[in-house]
Amino acid sequence: MKKYPVLISITMVFMVALTLAAPNVYGAEKNVIKQKDVIVPARQSIENIIVFGHDAIVKGKVKTAVIVINGDVDIKKNAKIKELVLVIGGHVKQEAGSKVTDNIIAINLNSPSQNSLFLGGLVLISGWLLRLISSIMLVFLTVIAGLSLHKRINSLAGLTKGQAPRLILSGAIISAALLVVSVLLAITVIGIPVSILLLLFPVLVFITGLAIYSHELASQFSSLEDKPPWLRYLTGSFVLVSLFNFPIIGSIFFLLLFFLSLGGAFKFLFERFRARKRKNI
């Protein structure tokens, strides 16, 4: 023994390393949460298995779930898993004769999956930011429009009272007509500037209408009666724009106000034209 101290030491270190590197075999624990390879022997039962960064081999019975993150699951013959098998960043291998009562979900985050996940998240965040910025700009423009038309806001509000359904229908028809004309003009290079102006007109009308509706909405709050005009327009527009962001219902509400604004604007222009024509007569 004294002649081979180095050889004996190397052999002992090698045996210890093999012992540490070997996968753990579990059969008596209820819940196994490890960062090592896990093996459930045949005829053994475990409640749950959760493994991080390594593989799980099931030969026996798992009463609840097997969850493996960044590893694989190998379900051997005669193995039984009563509930969920969830694998994230790995694969599931199931031999014939094994039984999994619940679903098997495997999410393999390879390069295409990671790219798709990243792209989807980027689109989702970008859409949310775009909606937030658009909402802030719409509130700001509404307040500016309201302050600019504050002296005439009451007379303009009277245009739509009692005639909302008819004006909404008129606005929808006018919107469709403007869209068709804009598309036809955009086909020709010369008509593109006119097409842009036609599309900007409904936007300006809608912002003006939103200022009117914001003023009317704010007037319903008694606490805002003595407040400065900008605060009333800000409060009303904030409530209305917030409603626009609700799924489906917000879009419908937005279209109704848009059509109502456009219908009211054309009614205003028509009445002004008719009044001027009468004066000339």
UniProtKB/TrEMBL annotation:
<feature type="transmembrane region" description="Helical">
    <location>
        <begin position="117"/>
        <end position="147"/>
    </location>
</feature>
<protein>
    <recommendedName>
        <fullName>Polymer-forming cytoskeletal protein</fullName>
    </recommendedName>
</protein>
<feature type="transmembrane region" description="Helical">
    <location>
        <begin position="196"/>
        <end position="218"/>
    </location>
</feature>
<keyword id="KW-0812">Transmembrane</keyword>
<feature type="signal peptide">
    <location>
        <begin position="1"/>
        <end position="21"/>
    </location>
</feature>
<feature type="transmembrane region" description="Helical">
    <location>
        <begin position="252"/>
        <end position="270"/>
    </location>
</feature>
<keyword id="KW-1133">Transmembrane helix</keyword>
<keyword id="KW-0732">Signal</keyword>
<keyword id="KW-0472">Membrane</keyword>
<feature type="transmembrane region" description="Helical">
    <location>
        <begin position="167"/>
        <end position="190"/>
    </location>
</feature>
